[in-house]
Amino acid sequence: MKKLASVCAGLLLLLSTSVFAEDHASEALKHANAAVEHGKAGHTPLLLEHAKAALEDALAASIVAKSVAKNHLDAGAKELQEAIDQGTLGHVGVATSHAEAAVEHIKAGNNNKK
After folding, report:
1. Quick check: 95 and 86 in contact, CB under 8 A?
2. Closest residue by Cα to residue 97 from 43, 40, 58
3. Which of 15, 17, 23, 105 has the greatest CB tally within 10 Å of its CB?
4. Chain Cα centroid distance, residue 58
5. Which string of b and e fits 6-15 if b means at least 16 CB within 10 Å?
6. How far separated are the first and last CA of the chain, in Å rounded?
7. What's the pLDDT at 48?
8. Domain ranges of the chain
9. What is the mean pLDDT of the chain?
């Protein structure tokens, strides 16, 4: 009976970590899209704000993600960091391009959840 309870608890833990990854990835995607919108409008401070929030969520999702999804989330996080770096330097166009690349990686990571 104890083994069955342990197995059930382990399965629930595995399932819940995948849900946490999806929640963080969804939030990362939302913020990354907002960063792109603000970047296209030339609003560098808002691009930076959303890119930083997206980076935090992408990193949190990457911690519990696996395989291809993890690779895409890591690549998205790298692009978001570049967007932040370029935005800080005042290069809003380049920062927006990196944010767009991050959106594509995060979307791809969401499509490969396993």
Report:
1. yes
2. 40
3. 105
4. 3
5. eeeeeeeeee
6. 29
7. 97
8. 20-111
9. 85
